[in-house]
Amino acid sequence: MSKTLVFDVQGMTCDHCVHAVTEAAQGVPGVTAAQVDLATNSAKVEGEGFDVAKIIEAIKEEGYEAAVRG
């Protein structure tokens, strides 16, 4: 079953940041799509069976802070 989560992402300032966060999220097993929005500092991630902690870790490895939007 597919699920969608929205993450707050802090530290993005430009299109390069958006690309880096998008690639990081999409690289996590189970993620089928990631849409990152600089204006709202958010990342919408879709997929099946992905590990939320691995998405946060992948984004942190790119130099940004991330947390599931409450």
Please explain how this structure is put together.
Helix 1 runs antiparallel to helix 2 (52-61). The protein starts with a strand and ends with a strand. With 70 residues, it is of the alpha+beta class. It is built from 2 helices and 4 strands, in the order E-H-E-E-H-E. The mean pLDDT is 97. The chain has a 4-stranded antiparallel beta sheet, covered by helices on one side. The protein has one domain: Alpha-Beta Plaits (2-Layer Sandwich), CATH 3.30.70. It has helices at 15-26, 52-61; strands at residues 3-10, 31-37, 42-47, 65-68. Strand 2 and strand 3 form a beta hairpin.
Query: Major sheet: order of its strands?
Result: 2-3-1-4
CATH topology: Alpha-Beta Plaits
Count of helical stretches: 2
Broad shape: globular
Number of strands: 4
Q: What kind of oligomer do you see?
A: single chain
Strand content: 35-45%
**Helix/strand order:** EHEEHE
The first-to-last residue Cα distance is 21 Å
Largest sheet data? 4 strands, antiparallel
The CATH architecture would be: 2-Layer Sandwich
* Rg calc: 11 Å
CATH domain class: Alpha Beta
Helix percent reads: 25-40%
Key terms:
70 residues, alpha+beta, Alpha-Beta Plaits, four-stranded antiparallel sheet, 2 helices, 4 strands, 31% helix
Describe the structure concisely for a colleague.
With 70 residues, this protein is an alpha+beta fold.
Topology, pairings included?
Blueprint: E1 3-10, H1 15-26, E2 31-37, E3 42-47, H2 52-61, E4 65-68
Antiparallel strand pairs: 1-3, 1-4, 2-3
Helix pairs in contact: 1-2
